[in-house]
Amino acid sequence: MTSPAERVRIEPRRSAATALSRIRTGLEDIRSNAADLDRRGAFPEADVLELARIGALQAFGADEATALELMEALRLVGRANLSLGRIFEGHVNGAGLVRWYGTSGQTAALADDLAAGALFGVWNTEPAPGVKIRRQGHGWVLQGSKSYATGAGYVQRALITAETSHGERQLVLVDGARPERADPSAWAVRGMRATCSGTYDLTDMPVEDGQLIGAPGDYLREPRFSAGAWRFTAVQLGGIEHILILLRDHLSIGELDPIRAARFGAVLAEVRSAYLWVREAAVQAEAENAGEDAVAMVLMARGVVERAGLAVMEAATRTVGTKAFFADHPLDQACRDLGLYLRQPVPDQALDRAARAFVARDAWRDDPLW
Ligand SMILES: Cc1cc2nc3c(=O)[nH]c(=O)nc-3n(C[C@H](O)[C@H](O)[C@H](O)COP(=O)(O)OP(=O)(O)OC[C@H]3O[C@@H](n4cnc5c(N)ncnc54)[C@H](O)[C@@H]3O)c2cc1C
User: Fold this and answer.
1) Co-location of 29 and 113 in the same domain
2) Which of 19, 122, 157, 197 would be a feasible disulfide site paired with 56, CB 3.0-4.6 Å?
3) Residue 193 belongs to a domain with what CATH number?
4) 122 C-beta closer than 6 A to ligand 1
5) Nearest alpha carbon, ligand 1 atom 5
6) Distance from chain centroid for Cα 194
7) Last residue of a domain, one of 189, 215, 241
8) 226-269 per-position pLDDT tens digit
9) Which residues contact 370 (CB under 8 A, 6 or more apart)?
10) Does a structural domain hold residue 368?
11) What is the DSSP string of 64-77?
């Protein structure tokens, strides 16, 4: 894949607020492409190029956005196309990791990459025995592959994790856009098809010192690792709101009976509650002094958003009925995408950790939650 800068003219550096308003303007176009991309299981290259062109990859990849601006961007892109939202979230995370843990030279290179419209991603998930990094000559070499790797074969800057000979996780910045290393057939799924999250083979890929980002263990460093999960809840929320809007559209035709009105009211409250949790989680997680409290808030928000997602799918399909399961009905893709994207790591343990953290808290402390 050629660099977007070679194919589109990137408009001058934009603030996050400008990029956000341009995302809003482009939402209809993104939505209109979603069904076709899903049908073909095709990576949304044109949409990604558009995000680059309007400066969104740059503004949200750099440290230019407030927590609420970033939340809005993730939520709105996710609402327009959940697969594109996942890709965009991976980009924000990947660029963030370079910013947080990279050297000054690496952050300068990041700024150049972002200005050129490069797409970042983070690939941690892997099939056994995992990816290893070992010394080879003056540099390093990788062995193994990544799975569920969003944009495998398309992401120009992939932050991968690799196990060192001391058993620690090292971040490595690699070229993730080599089609011969990607296996899209490994992503034979019902939903989120346009993320093209197949496997990516890193075997025998040479690595130079300058590609190592941070120290071993940095990727899992808290509170960033767990608190950063708020970003995927914002994207999920977008997918949830999309279904709520489809349900609203359905109900707005004809008379509204009390049973369906009550069902809509109940799920509207759940979705709005999820929004408020995500907003609070975003603000706490992105605060300078974010700590264990922010992590607990994000872990709780994960469960709230998951339950709102399951509720809205149930309410929408129950209300619309059999038609909701036809391939040409918008609810079909919306529910397939959201159903899969709600599957994030260790959901039960997230609630368990959050509950323990809240039980352990001093209830008399100055904390708006109590
Ligand atoms: C669309 C999509 C794109 C993705 N893109 C990427 C990507 O770009 N990069 C990347 O790194 N990953 C990616 N992933 C992977 C994702 O981040 C999660 O790691 C993955 O979806 C979680 O898999 P899982 O549902 O099997 O969760 P798991 O955490 O494996 O859990 C599966 C089930 O087992 C339970 N469970 C797990 N461990 C235990 C335990 N110890 N005890 C009891 N129960 C347990 C959980 O509660 C859950 O119910 C992507 C996933 C999706 C769906």
Assistant:
1) yes
2) 19
3) 2.40.110.10
4) yes
5) 150
6) 13
7) 215
8) 999 999 999 999 999 999 999 999 999 988 999 999 999 999 99
9) 361, 363, 364
10) no
11) T--HHHHHHHHHHH
CA-proximal residue: ligand 1, atom 46 (nearest): 346
Shared-domain flag, residues 208 and 270: no
Task: Write down which residue in 89, 119, 149 finishes a domain.
Answer: 119
The finding on whether 346 has its CB within 6 A of some atom of ligand 1 is yes
What pLDDT shows up at residue 174? 98
Binding site membership of 192 for ligand 1 (Cβ less than 6 Å): yes
- Tell whether 80 is covered by a domain: yes
User: Ligand 1: which atom is nearest the Cα of residue 125?
Assistant: 11
- Residue ID of nearest Cα to ligand 1 atom 31: 346
Share of the chain above pLDDT 90, in %: 88
- Whether 165 is covered by a domain: the verdict is yes
Average pLDDT over residues 197-216: 98
> Does the residue 156 lie in any domain?
yes
Contact between 85 and 77 under an 8 Å Cβ cutoff? The reply is yes
At residue 370, the pLDDT reads 44
Residue range 158-192, pLDDT digits in tens: 999 999 999 999 999 999 999 999 999 999 999 99
- Give the three-class secondary structure for 146: strand
Q: Which residue CA neighbors atom 34 of ligand 1 most closely?
A: 346
pLDDT of residue 363: 62
DSSP state of 194: G
Domain count, the chain: 3
Q: How far is the CA of 355 from the centre of ligand 1 (A)?
A: 20
The domain of 209 spans 121-215
E strand segments, 47-168: 120-123, 132-136, 139-143, 145-146, 155-163
